[in-house]
Specification:
alpha/beta
């Protein structure tokens, strides 16, 4: 059975799609068969691999309501072991179309069931919001990975996500677990970066990945060439970081012990970075 990992953060610009692309590519380099699902109506993950939306006859939107089309919508990428279920801007309509539907939270889960046994990992790139598409991703996933930017309001930005995670786990998807938090845009020269890292480690003592994703020019360049950082410049610091993150993900399971009240501690006033 595939490990289904949702990569989510409702705050934009935190490196979520970059993490989804490069984690999936890194797992594929390790010869893990990976399906990467672009759940974002902006389709940045799709274009980040050089796939043009207008050339696609099938995509996640067409498969959303007809799960038997999921397999035909999946395309093989240029990278061995890596497959893509692409998005299109039509996905934006899902937020409205599902409002009055029964079991509206499980459409993506039903969409993935026909192909789940074909892959070792399924990576879901969620949109930068906590709407119905993200809710569907959390209900389809078994593990949640949170990219967290090293900035002043980093922890405040995930409070809502953790509240949603707790509600989904309690009411809709008891199998969902917190895989971990990965720090992105890490600049070791910046004092605030170290303060954020210390505070996150205090709030997530058992869930912070040792790997940090540095600020890296090559990481920013790769999508414009339609490639992951692994296939654009495997010798770069960004590629090294994502390969290390993939190794941690393979070794780690979301079943790690979660401290009682972990989410409440993050939401408390004591768990925040204060200016010096």
């Amino acid at each position: 059975m595939a490990r289904i990992i949702a990569i989510a953060n409702q705050k934009g610009g935190v490196g979520k799609t970059t993490t989804a692309i490069n984690l999936a590519a890194s797992l594929a380099i390790m010869e893990k068969k990976v399906l990467w699902v672009d759940c974002d109506p902006q389709a940045n993950s799709t274009s980040g691999l050089g796939v043009a939306q207008e050339t696609l006859r099938e995509n996640l939107y067409t498969a959303f309501y007809e799960p038997d089309k999921t397999r035909t919508a999946i395309i093989a990428t240029n990278a061995p072991y890596l497959y893509l279920l692409p998005a299109s801007t039509d996905l934006v309509a899902v937020e409205l179309e599902l409002v009055d539907k029964m079991a509206r939270e499980y459409y993506l889960s039903d969409c993935l069931k026909p192909v789940e046994s074909d892959y070792e990992y399924i990576v879901l790139d969620c949109p930068p919001s906590l709407g119905l598409i993200s809710l569907n991703a959390l209900c389809a996933a078994r593990e949640l990975l949170i990219p967290l930017q090293c900035e002043f309001f980093a922890l405040e930005g995930i409070v809502k996500l953790l509240q949603t995670y707790e509600q989904v786990k309690r009411r809709l998807n008891p199998q969902l677990g917190l895989l971990g938090v990965v720090l992105t845009m890490y600049d070791m020269r910046n004092k605030l970066t170290h303060e954020v890292q210390s505070e996150v480690r205090r709030c997530f003592p058992d869930h912070l990945f040792e790997t940090v994703i540095p600020r890296n020019v090559r990481l920013s360049e790769a999508p414009s060439h339609g490639k992951s950082i692994i296939h654009y410049d495997i010798k770069s610091k960004g590629a090294e970081a994502y390969l290390n993150l993939a190794k941690e993900v393979v070794l780690r399971r979301s079943g790690r012990k979660e401290a009682p009240g972990m989410e409440q501690s993050v939401m408390s006033e004591s768990c925040q970075v204060c200016p010096q």
